[in-house]
Write a structure and sequence with these properties.
Strand content: 25-35%
Oligomer: single chain
Radius of gyration: 13 Å
Largest sheet: 4 strands, antiparallel
Structural class: mainly beta
Shape: globular
Number of strands: 8
Helix content: under 10%
Order of helices and strands: EEEEEEEE
Protein backbone atom coordinates (compact mmCIF):
# COMPACT_ATOMS: atom_id res chain seq x y z
CA UNK A 1 0.00 0.00 0.00
CA UNK A 2 1.84 3.07 -1.25
CA UNK A 3 -0.85 5.40 0.09
CA UNK A 4 -1.12 7.36 3.32
CA UNK A 5 -4.17 5.46 4.57
CA UNK A 6 -5.23 1.91 5.39
CA UNK A 7 -6.88 -0.06 2.57
CA UNK A 8 -9.28 -2.94 3.13
CA UNK A 9 -9.17 -5.40 0.21
CA UNK A 10 -11.87 -7.72 1.58
CA UNK A 11 -14.06 -8.69 -1.37
CA UNK A 12 -11.58 -7.55 -3.99
CA UNK A 13 -11.08 -10.04 -6.80
CA UNK A 14 -8.03 -11.48 -8.51
CA UNK A 15 -8.83 -12.65 -12.02
CA UNK A 16 -6.53 -15.13 -13.71
CA UNK A 17 -7.30 -15.88 -17.39
CA UNK A 18 -6.06 -19.46 -17.00
CA UNK A 19 -7.83 -20.35 -13.72
CA UNK A 20 -10.66 -17.84 -13.28
CA UNK A 21 -11.25 -15.48 -10.38
CA UNK A 22 -11.13 -15.70 -6.62
CA UNK A 23 -12.26 -13.32 -3.93
CA UNK A 24 -9.79 -11.97 -1.37
CA UNK A 25 -10.79 -12.72 2.21
CA UNK A 26 -9.03 -13.14 5.55
CA UNK A 27 -8.91 -16.88 4.84
CA UNK A 28 -6.42 -16.42 1.98
CA UNK A 29 -3.96 -13.82 3.28
CA UNK A 30 -0.67 -14.21 5.12
CA UNK A 31 -1.91 -12.20 8.12
CA UNK A 32 -5.47 -13.48 8.47
CA UNK A 33 -6.82 -9.96 7.85
CA UNK A 34 -7.58 -7.99 4.69
CA UNK A 35 -6.44 -4.55 5.77
CA UNK A 36 -3.15 -3.11 4.55
CA UNK A 37 -1.78 -0.22 6.61
CA UNK A 38 -0.21 2.78 4.91
CA UNK A 39 3.17 1.67 3.62
CA UNK A 40 2.32 -1.96 4.48
CA UNK A 41 2.18 -5.25 2.59
CA UNK A 42 -0.17 -8.20 2.29
CA UNK A 43 0.35 -11.55 0.60
CA UNK A 44 -2.72 -13.18 -0.94
CA UNK A 45 -2.80 -16.89 -1.66
CA UNK A 46 -5.07 -18.88 -3.93
CA UNK A 47 -5.96 -21.57 -1.38
CA UNK A 48 -2.84 -23.62 -1.98
CA UNK A 49 -2.70 -23.18 -5.76
CA UNK A 50 -0.36 -20.89 -7.66
CA UNK A 51 -1.83 -17.72 -9.12
CA UNK A 52 0.69 -17.61 -11.95
CA UNK A 53 1.39 -20.41 -14.37
CA UNK A 54 4.66 -20.74 -16.27
CA UNK A 55 3.21 -20.64 -19.78
CA UNK A 56 1.87 -17.10 -19.78
CA UNK A 57 -1.27 -15.49 -18.47
CA UNK A 58 -3.07 -12.28 -17.63
CA UNK A 59 -3.71 -11.55 -13.95
CA UNK A 60 -5.91 -8.62 -12.91
CA UNK A 61 -6.81 -7.08 -9.54
CA UNK A 62 -10.27 -5.51 -9.18
CA UNK A 63 -11.68 -3.61 -6.19
CA UNK A 64 -14.80 -5.81 -6.32
CA UNK A 65 -16.69 -8.01 -8.76
CA UNK A 66 -15.86 -6.70 -12.26
CA UNK A 67 -19.32 -7.81 -13.42
CA UNK A 68 -20.90 -5.51 -10.82
CA UNK A 69 -18.82 -2.39 -11.34
CA UNK A 70 -15.51 -3.44 -9.76
CA UNK A 71 -12.70 -1.22 -11.03
CA UNK A 72 -9.45 -2.60 -12.44
CA UNK A 73 -6.68 -1.63 -9.99
CA UNK A 74 -3.66 -3.36 -11.57
CA UNK A 75 -2.83 -5.92 -14.23
CA UNK A 76 0.06 -8.14 -15.30
CA UNK A 77 0.25 -9.79 -18.72
CA UNK A 78 3.16 -12.14 -19.28
CA UNK A 79 4.37 -14.76 -21.75
CA UNK A 80 6.30 -17.04 -19.37
CA UNK A 81 7.37 -17.37 -15.75
CA UNK A 82 9.91 -19.36 -13.74
CA UNK A 83 9.29 -21.66 -10.76
CA UNK A 84 10.17 -20.16 -7.35
CA UNK A 85 10.57 -16.68 -8.82
CA UNK A 86 8.20 -13.75 -8.50
CA UNK A 87 6.96 -10.85 -10.57
CA UNK A 88 7.36 -7.45 -8.91
CA UNK A 89 7.11 -3.75 -9.63
CA UNK A 90 10.65 -2.41 -9.26
CA UNK A 91 11.35 0.04 -7.72
CA UNK A 92 9.17 -1.32 -4.94
CA UNK A 93 5.56 -1.16 -6.06
CA UNK A 94 5.97 1.76 -8.47
CA UNK A 95 8.03 0.68 -11.47
CA UNK A 96 7.24 -1.62 -14.34
CA UNK A 97 6.52 -5.32 -13.78
CA UNK A 98 9.70 -7.39 -13.98
CA UNK A 99 10.31 -11.08 -13.28
CA UNK A 100 13.00 -13.30 -11.84
CA UNK A 101 12.90 -11.94 -8.30
CA UNK A 102 13.15 -13.82 -5.02
CA UNK A 103 9.65 -13.94 -3.51
CA UNK A 104 9.14 -11.62 -0.50
CA UNK A 105 5.60 -12.42 0.72
CA UNK A 106 4.32 -9.70 3.01
CA UNK A 107 7.41 -7.52 2.47
CA UNK A 108 8.90 -5.02 0.02
CA UNK A 109 9.83 -6.08 -3.50
CA UNK A 110 13.59 -6.40 -3.89
Amino acid sequence: NGGDWTIDVNGWEVYDNAAGNFVISSANTNTGVTTIPAGGYLAVYRNGAAIFNNTGDSVKLYDGDPGSGGVLIDQLDYISSTDSQSWARIPNGTGPWTNGHTPTPGGPNV
